[in-house]
Amino acid sequence: MNTAETISLLIENEDSQSSRSEVVGTADVAAVMKERNDHPMLLAFAIQKSALQYPSPQSWLPVFAQDLKTRKRRGAKRYWRGGHEEFYRKYEKTTEENRCFYELLLPNMWTHLYVDIDADLTFNPGLDTNAVCVEFALRMREFVTKEIGGRHVRFVRLDSGTASRMSVHYIIKLDRACFLNNFHCGAFMRRFQRYVVGDNGNYGAPFFVKTKHNGEVASIFDMAVYTLHRVFRVFGSHKIGSDRILWRTGRKDNTLRRETFLDTLVQYFPSANEIDLVVQVLEWDGSLPKSTSHVWQHLPSPPGHGKIGVSEKKIRRSGGSGRGGRAAAISAPSVVEPGLSSALAKYISQQHGGCSVRETKPMAGVVNVYLNSRECRLRGESHDSNHIYVVVYLRSGEWVQRCHSSYVTCDGKETERKSLPKELAQRCAEAHRKVEENEKNTIIDLKPVFAFLNAENVKPDEVWQSKEVYSAQGVACNA
Description:
This protein is α+β, with helices and mostly antiparallel strands and 479 residues long. It folds into two domains: 5-323 and 453-464, no CATH class; 331-440, no CATH class. Helices cover 21% and strands 21% of the residues. The chain has eight helices and 22 strands. It has helices at residues 29-38, 48-53, 84-93, 129-147, 182-197, 258-263, 338-351, 422-440, and strands spanning 5-9, 42-45, 63-67, 77-82, 101-104, 113-120, 153-159, 165-174, 177-179, 208-210, 217-219, 231-233, 247-248, 277-281, 357-363, 366-371, 375-376, 381-382, 388-393, 398-403, 418-419, 462-464. The chain has a six-stranded antiparallel β-sheet. The two termini are 42 Å apart.
């Protein structure tokens, strides 16, 4: 077995030891890495859940996603599961037009630190992208040395930018070290953002830039890439409908070679023997790492006027949306009867001017009521596009309003709790008692992957196995 040490970076409370999860667990890590790299077949699935279930929810086999051209469904993908070497053989034989692949990041696998940098140069004409990358590398080296120690840091930079857009991916490799999973990368990056912002709230260049929204700034770091089952584009690929290929920066040619391709993957390790340190990171507030796309909640409150000049209410995020930025969670099966959900929907609708209810969604201990209303009590005015929703807490019989907006006044926040009518609160308390009884009989295993996945009767749509080895000369890839 590999004996890589697991350190808990920035964790000072010894009591938190019991809440840490082993990602690879007690398995022979060397055998895990060998199977991930050398599994002889590649299996195709039409949906992500089936791919993650095969051959079992605990599998460490890599998963890759491929954009598909289809008129029926926008954003359609096919998912491939198998060894790294076999996937590369498939990838090399794929035509450039169809080379639209992504690495799906598994929550039960070691991970290199990765960063997505994005900026609209149309609204930042003086932004020097190379200078931004140099400054980022310097500050990141400082932060790694400060928090982890003096390990060598190697930056693998990939670029798919244009004259009007900065788009850079970094795979940051620490000498003989990695992170426990991508949630820990996210926690580390949120700490890094707090480090570069500082106590004085420096929301200026080069790490915060202007956006198309008048008087607003955004972070150049896409903080939504550290969520559950995130896909990250691979070297030599482009998004469907785009000709912007992701290629290595500073190379004289963009030939697709095995060594280059594997070196640019986030969760590829040639062998377990190369790792002697696995880093765990708590969130900036001391909580456990989570899947979240919050952009501003972890940062100090911005001043009324930063270096660029920005109103506190008008700070937006860059990058993916991440559906409201709520932490990913596993919920026990709900036992809330439809009648209670309907009663809650009716009452909440009355409290919001009689607006219609889009959906009620019972979860473990709460019921979410989604409203067809943009009138946000957190912001004090209506949103342009984001709808609001209400969270009803069954145990206490109270409710709060939230929204999916990334504004500082809304992101990750909720209104003060208000009480339900007595009769409705009693029904909620009874439902919560049933939930607790149900949870006692429900085993939810967080290690090494999520228990709601069911691997029974999952079959691939296609089995692909190469009959030839990959090309030693590589395959040309146009930039």
